Amino acid sequence: MSDASRSIADARRAGMSRRDFLRFVGTSGAAAASVSSLAYAADSGPGASADGPPTRPDGGSKVRTTLTINGKPHRLEIDPRTTLLDVLREHVGLTGTKKGCDHGQCGACTVHVNGRRVNSCLSLAVMHEGDTITTVEGLGKPGQLHPMQQAFVDHDGYQCGYCTSGQIMSAVAMLDEPWGRSDDDVREAMSGNICRCGAYKNILGAIKQVREG
Predict the structure, then answer these.
(1) Which runs of E-coded beta strand occur in 79-182?
(2) pTM of the predicted model, to two decimals?
């Protein structure tokens, strides 16, 4: 017999119904949980809370860092937990880099760090002090587009456009990576970037134009 079954049997012998017993256990359990939580807060030192683990006494102080983005230094004071993606969008105002899944699965947030493609939603900004960061805004400008940007225009390599900046950043980085020349090689190289509109055929055509041109 389990401990719970034994307790219910003892309660019945004492004249307590099953419903009354369960109500008593529920009330006692809630009280015990509250006492346990308060005891944890009392024993956890400054900044502790009965609602969960203790927080930092200073509330999470910010740190100073300087990031070089598209050739320009940006001196920032940020929470050390801030992702590179959020710094780019919320602190620097470079909103071409998109927040899609925020879990590194869609590629919409792709940027270059020291010439290599990185999912900026998975990377802490403070890790990149001293690195060279490039976003889609740093590739080209109106009237003087990067060849890959122009190829996406030529081939209609987008529909809603939300994934396009990440697609372009990955495609540009791929040019310096040792991928084969076949269509399947290109598809594999770009598999980390999802287009929910399904413009893959046109994206492939744009990349082939630049690689062959």
Answers:
(1) 110-113, 116-119, 132-134
(2) 0.72
Last residue of a domain, one of 38, 59, 80: 59
Count structural domains, the chain: 2
Write out pLDDT tens, residues 36-56.
443 334 444 444 444 443 334
Same-domain status, 117 and 196 = yes
Return the higher-pLDDT residue of 45 and 23: 23
Pair (174, 194) in one structural domain: yes
Q: Which of 20, 23, 49 is nearest to 37 (CA)?
A: 49
- Ramachandran area for residue 42 (φ above 0: left; ψ -120 to 50: alpha; else beta): alpha
Q: Are residues 111 and 204 in the same domain?
A: yes
Cα gap 207→1, rounded to integer Å: 69
Per-residue confidence band for 17, with pLDDT thresholds at 50, 70 and 90: low
In this prediction, residue 51 carries a pLDDT of 46
d(CA 133, CA 114): 6
